[in-house]
Specification:
This protein has 737 residues and is of the alpha+beta class. The protein has 26 helices and 28 strands.
């Protein structure tokens, strides 16, 4: 049966794409084939608007074992020890159905890690919502946080940190980006259908109608008043089934029973079947009748593109099939052989003895059009950058600090992370809330530090410089924890790629990430691009979320944010520019301004700071370390004090003598950190800083119950009350409305 001539448009395919499909097949496509092309050639699966630009990102490095193109990047963190690291977005489903959208986002990224033969050991999220005075934002945030906690806690993978920020542009388009870390326990797997005659094993949950068209309906179009009608395209997850699936998959790998493995997510069975065959240069013959279903009378196209969760596809040698099925049965995981690998280079689908699809695997997986979309620098950006950046002095320094500490993006996120179990596996060193999460790898001395950062406001003002700052900030976070930054994953969240201004932003974001990764030695191991993040024609800020991974040779050298004991010296590392207020939290919260240019970043200075912090941590010179970012030095010092419930007395009048007093406290100049150390280590630290050419200022001492800033002072209990109660109070107020 061939497809109706106009059905392709309903499936999200253009007329030109239909012509290309006809050329690939040499005939009219069947309806099942057209549905398969619609998901595989969707923006979400094919990256047709971004592939041209993504090739400009650095992806090779001495520690990179597997780069972009597989389920996750693989990084060697010690001789013979490798981890998997990947981030994904689930923005659109989380807008339509926040609980299930976020939950299935967690499940999907976990399966990406498992598909590489790695055990998932940590999750980290990066969330963006609108302003909290909007009841719908409260509903979205509550659903997303509970979706993440419900799935992560139930499946048994700790959520160890992340970030939550608020901006009006995300009101109708929240960002739900989730990263997962795994450790390769036995051997590395990849998604390849090698070996003619090998069997195709589908195992995991049964296939239903949930999630049909998710990649093409939800993730590859913007939102409007009818968007809630897309709710059926949101999948429903089952974390308990996922836990069994994890164990079955890893046992299959450990017992060397499979030769290829890939998870089922966007695109359903069509995705791994076509991609695994295309990568191996083989074909796959599938019998859809053998797929275990949860609903009656499912059509062939539904079976092929359903995005039902908790499923994997494996390639098994015939001699291992019975044993592989037995492993799945042991874990209570349904499994069936649904086909075999062929030498035809084609993906063939049979139903009841009839062929409903016969497509070159390469055509589905790799032949989607690569678009060089028009790019145009927005006319409004020059005026925006030339506008005052909000760096005017406040009337009350103490009041300004209190306002910043109560702002939703800076205040304590305890309400969020206390819902997550961050101590599963007992490998997490320290609770969420620090610069980076440090994870000790099971039964090993080596540890990794992971962090996420995505300064959308900076990228709105200048997408290239904002992206550079995102990479620098995430690298600085892991360096502050004592780690050596080695690699990134990313989620690139932007508006409609059909808009030339959005594509200009995207190109600039890629340029900025590439610049920073090359300078800092942190290649890109993979990630995803999420376009069409806009509602009723209003795009979000360009928001590249960077997930940085750093390595500590020993978990014992990890450094925390909080001051450790009274009498320690407090040092400020790096230089402060009095004019770095563009896009700052101070400018937004005190003057209600988002304008100017982002803070100036010197990548060499940033790299030098990382080397200094890693060396100082390795030598045990620092008692605490905290990078300076949102809110500047004043907020960083408060956070160091609150983490240990220990006050301080500081004087930073000499740090920024050419600026107004508030410049030293609230400027967001990058490449800086606050360090505390025992007095006997000051001289050694100063010498190390001089070696790395990092400016160092001795600014104070820890101790007492007050935060003495010189020109003003605040009681420690007061700031703790402000920042800890800010988010719960705001959420309660919005619920009352």
């Amino acid at each position: 049966m061939t497809a109706d001539l106009l059905v392709h448009r309903e499936l999200g395919l253009t007329d030109d794409e239909l012509d290309q499909i006809r050329a690939e097949l040499g005939r009219e496509p069947t309806y099942t084939e057209l549905a398969m092309f619609s998901v595989m050639w969707s923006e979400h699966c094919s990256y047709k608007s971004s592939r041209l630009h993504l090739t400009k990102l650095p992806s090779k490095g001495d520690a990179i074992l597997v780069g972009p193109g597989e389920g996750a990047g693989i990084i060697e963190v010690a001789p013979g020890v490798a981890v998997a690291w990947k981030a994904e977005s689930h923005n659109h489903p989380s807008f339509v159905e926040p609980f299930n959208g976020a939950a299935t986002g967690v499940g999907g990224i976990i399966r990406d890690i498992v598909s590489m033969g790695a055990r998932p050991i940590a999750l980290m999220d990066s969330l963006r919502f609108g302003e909290l005075d909007d009841p719908r934002t409260r509903y979205l945030m509550d659903g997303v946080v509970h979706g993440i906690s419900s799935y992560g806690n139930s499946v048994g993978v700790p959520t160890v940190g992340g970030e939550t920020a608020f901006e009006d542009c995300y009101a109708d388009n929240p960002l739900v980006n989730v990263a997962c870390l795994g450790v390769v326990e036995h051997k590395l797997m990849q998604g390849r259908a090698t070996g003619t005659g090998n069997k195709v094993l589908l195992f995991g949950s049964s296939t239903g109608r949930d999630g049909i068209g998710g990649a093409s309906v939800l993730a590859s179009a913007g939102f409007d008043d009818s968007s809630m009608e897309k709710r059926p395209s949101v999948q429903v997850g089952d974390p308990f089934s996922e836990k069994l699936l994890i164990e079955a998959s890893l046992e299959l790998v450990a017992r060397d029973l499979i030769v290829g493995l890939q998870d089922l997510g966007a695109g359903g069975i069509s995705c791994p079947a076509s991609e695994m065959a295309a990568k191996a240069g083989t074909g796959i013959y599938l019998t859809a009748d053998d797929v275990h279903l949860r609903e009656q009378e499912m059509q062939p196209f539904e079976i092929m593109i359903s995005e039902s969760q908790e499923r994997m596809l494996a390639i098994v040698e015939p001699r291992c099939v019975d044993e592989a099925l037995a492993v799945c049965a042991h874990w209570g995981v349904p499994a069936r052989v649904i086909g075999e690998v062929t030498s035809s280079d084609r993906l063939e689908v049979d139903v009841g003895g009839d062929t409903v699809a016969d497509v070159p695997a390469r055509a589905l997986a790799d032949a989607a059009p690569v678009l060089d979309r028009a790019r145009q620098r927005p006319e409004w950006i020059d005026d925006l950058q030339a506008s005052p950046n909000g760096g005017d002095p406040p009337e009350d320094l103490a009041g300004a600090l209190s306002t910043l500490l109560a702002s939703p993006s800076i205040c304590s996120k305890r309400w969020v992370w206390e819902q997550y179990d961050h101590m599963i596996f007992l490998g997490t060193i320290g609770p969420p809330g620090g610069d980076a999460a440090v994870i000790r790898l099971p039964d090993r001395e080596v540890a990794v530090a992971i962090s996420t950062d995505g300064p959308g406001r900076y990228c709105y003002l200048d997408p290239c410089d904002g992206a550079r700052l995102a990479v620098a900030e995430s690298a600085r976070n892991v360096a502050a924890a004592g780690a050596r930054p080695v690699a990134i994953t990313n989620c690139l969240n932007l508006g409609n790629p059909e808009d030339p201004e959005v594509m200009w932003q995207f190109g600039e974001v890629i340029r900025g990430i590439s610049d920073a990764c090359n300078a800092l030695g942190t290649p890109v191991t993979g990630g995803n691009v999420s376009f069409y993040n806009e509602t009723k024609g209003r795009p979000i800020y360009p928001t590249p979320v960077i997930g940085m991974l750093g390595v500590l040779d020993s978990y014992r050298t990890a450094v925390g944010v909080g001051f450790v004991e009274e009498g320690h010296q407090i040092l400020l590392l790096g230089s402060t520019d009095p004019g770095d207020f563009g896009g700052s939290e101070y400018a937004k919260m005190i003057h209600r301004i988002v304008a100017g240019t982002p803070p100036k970043l010197d990548l060499q200075a940033e790299r030098s700071l990382h080397l200094l912090l890693h060396s100082a941590a390795t030598q045990g010179l620092m008692a605490s370390c905290h990078d300076l970012s949102h809110g500047g030095a004043a907020v960083a010092l408060v956070e160091c004090a609150m983490a240990a419930h220990l006050g301080f007395s500081v004087d930073i009048s000499d740090v920024c003598p050419q600026g107004e007093p508030h410049s030293a406290w609230f400027s967001e100049t990058p490449s800086r950190a606050v360090v505390s150390c025992a007095e006997e280590h000051v001289e050694t630290l100063a010498g190390l800083a001089a070696t790395h050419r990092v400016p160092l200022s001795l600014i104070g001492v820890t101790g007492g119950s007050d935060l003495d800033f010189g020109p003003f002072a605040i009681e420690l209990t007061t700031v703790e009350e402000i920042t800890e109660r800010a988010l719960p109070n705001t959420l309660s107020a919005s619920m009352d409305r």
